[in-house]
């Protein structure tokens, strides 16, 4: 069965600190996709990144970086020099490619990040 | 430039009084999803439409129904809301069933009194 675990329920940091959000997934499929979404207090889920299972290259986008390691089934997300505007709930999600069936997102329980000024 | 629009953003209804939440999209995507997100929990998929084909999740209560009159609009009907149905309801779209990226609307926060 597929599952996404975000063990960190809440993290609090001071502005300018680096912070890493952990994500561990379980799947039996060889083809799958991993995502990170940001949910600010307004409620909208904002797409941050998608990786497919064949691409283990780490990615950097501005202050954001992602570390995908299939050997440990992890897809961790690091924010460098955090800012107050980064305060939000962050969800990691998994989607499996089921042939002709609709791809569905399996979400982790989310990590609430609070960045203090 | 709004792509997935949900109305209203906040909805208050009374226990047992039917309520309808609305979602529209300007992306011309074939698939529309409804998620329920309770406080401090992950979004949970209720059902989705692929074109006119309705696909219910096995554990979605019968109290929840959906309609998709055309490509752009999708409605979530709660026939007899209970206190436990108070949640954020998120609508999302994807280009087709195989597409991996979903675009979310801002959500409707439902309060049941």
Query: Uncertain runs of chain A with pLDDT below 50, 5 residues or more?
Result: none
Low-confidence stretches of chain B: none
- Structural class computed from helices and strand pairing of chain A: mainly beta
Helix content of chain B: under 10%
Q: Assign an overall shape of chain B.
A: globular
Mean pLDDT of chain A: 91
Number of helices of chain A: 0
Distance between the termini of chain B: 34 Å
| Envelope shape of chain A | globular
**Major sheet size, sense and barrel closure of chain B:** 7 strands, mixed
Question: Termini separation of chain A (Å)?
Answer: 41 Å
User: What Rg of chain B do the Cα atoms give?
Assistant: 13 Å
Largest interface in this structure: A-B, 24 and 25 residues
Total number of beta strands of chain B: 11
Order of helices and strands of chain B: EEEEEEEEEEE
Topology overview:
The complex is a heterodimer of chains A (117) and B (113).
Chain A: E1 3-5, E2 10-14, E3 19-21, E4 24-26, E5 32-39, E6 46-52, E7 59-61, E8 64-69, E9 74-79, E10 88-96, E11 105-107, E12 111-116
Parallel strand pairs in A: 2-12
Antiparallel strand pairs in A: 1-4, 3-9, 5-6, 5-10, 7-8, 8-9, 10-11, 10-12
Chain B: E1 4-7, E2 10-13, E3 19-25, E4 31-37, E5 44-50, E6 53-56, E7 64-67, E8 73-78, E9 87-94, E10 103-104, E11 108-112
Parallel strand pairs in B: 2-11
Antiparallel strand pairs in B: 1-3, 3-8, 4-5, 4-9, 5-6, 7-8, 9-10, 9-11
Structure description:
The complex is a heterodimer of chains A (117) and B (113). In chain A, strand 10 (88-96) and strand 11 form a beta hairpin. The mean pLDDT of chain A is 91. The radius of gyration of chain A is 14 Å and the shape is globular. Chain A has 117 residues and is an all-beta fold. Chain A is 0% helix and 53% strand. Chain B has strands at 4-7, 10-13, 19-25, 31-37, 44-50, 53-56, 64-67, 73-78, 87-94, 103-104, 108-112. Chain B has no helices and 11 strands. Chain B is mostly beta strands and 113 residues long. In chain B, the strands form 2 sheets. In chain B, strands 2, 4, 5, 6, 9, 10 and 11 form a 7-stranded mixed β-sheet that branches. A 4-stranded antiparallel β-sheet of chain B has the order 1-3-8-7, with no helix packed on it. Chain B is 0% helix and 51% strand.
């Amino acid at each position: 069965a597929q599952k996404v675990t975000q063990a960190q329920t809440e993290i609090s940091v001071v502005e300018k600190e680096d912070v890493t959000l952990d994500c561990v997934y379980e799947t039996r499929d060889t083809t799958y996709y991993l995502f990170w979404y940001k949910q600010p207090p307004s409620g909208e889920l904002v797409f941050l990144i998608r990786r497919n299972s064949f691409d283990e290259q780490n990615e950097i986008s501005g202050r954001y970086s992602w570390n995908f390691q299939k050997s440990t089934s992890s897809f961790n997300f690091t924010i460098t020099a955090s800012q107050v505007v980064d305060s939000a709930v962050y969800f990691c999600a998994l989607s499996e490619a089921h042939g002709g069936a609709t791809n569905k997102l399996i979400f982790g329980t989310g990590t609430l990040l609070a960045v203090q000024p | 430039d709004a792509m997935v629009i949900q109305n209203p953003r906040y909805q208050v209804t009374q226990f047992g009084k039917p309520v309808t939440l609305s979602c529209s999209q300007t992306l011309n995507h074939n698939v529309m999803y409804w998620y329920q997100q309770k406080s401090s929990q992950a979004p949970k998929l209720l059902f989705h439409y692929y074109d006119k084909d309705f696909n219910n999740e096995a554990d979605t209560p019968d109290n929840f129904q959906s309609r998709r009159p055309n490509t752009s609009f999708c409605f979530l009907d709660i026939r007899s809301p209970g206190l436990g149905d108070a949640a954020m309801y998120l609508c999302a779209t994807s280009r087709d069933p195989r597409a991996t990226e979903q675009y979310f609307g801002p959500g409707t926060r439902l309060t049941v009194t």
